[in-house]
Amino acid sequence: MHIPPRVLTVAGSDSGGGAGIQADLKTMLALGTHGMSVVTAVTAQNSLGVQGAWELPAEAVRAQFRSVVDDIGVQAVKTGMLSSAELVETVADLLAGLRAPVVIDPVGVSKHGDALLAATALDAVRGALLPTATVATPNLDEVAQLTGIRVEEEADMRRAAAAILDFGPRWALIKGGHLPAGRGESAVDLLTDGTEEHWLRAPRHDNRHTHGTGCTLAGALAAQLAKGDTVPQAAAAAKDYVTGALAAGFRLGAGIGPVDHGWRWNRRDAH
Q: Catalytic annotation on 215?
């Protein structure tokens, strides 16, 4: 009997299916792992934005986590939307007792610009959540929110990574997808532990349907870590997966559509 590696996502629900828990579970399945979930918030969300968000009680989050971890066990954990200081501190406390690798995606703002993290929770993210991370995966807006550093060119990414590492994660993966793109430039991310440095480059795709990109990258990273990859191996594999998903992103509704989590299957079926 084959039992796939088990990966837990602790995140918010996206009713439109492109980001959050839904993106994580699709990613984990696509990469050959068994995804499990702790729902932290429910959002009313579609291709146009977030119309409403309702946080779950800390007690419900704690109960879901213990239910999964104490019986089934986990080989990696990924966190996403933790909207309040109370939830951030609750999840940080739960993660502190784990031996499995942890990917922290410090979600602050949705693709549409909707705030998903209270300003009062930032100190808890810095002081309690990031120290539990094997890898932290902020985008450039989240770097600015957490550190005050504005990354305007590739050279700034080292300084951003150093500032994130100061909060205690073992590795920082600074996502450079929001950098201004020159003609023919690639999308570049920087992975570093302060000693090793890995620049991850991939072609930019002219596709506006990119909803769920950050969740998908962090979920893929967690899935690869659960399968036994080193952090650099996992980051390279996750970058490859999300690049393909971005290229295949498709239109849904009247706004920004999602990346295609099943792009590898769909490409095989096309042939």
A: yes
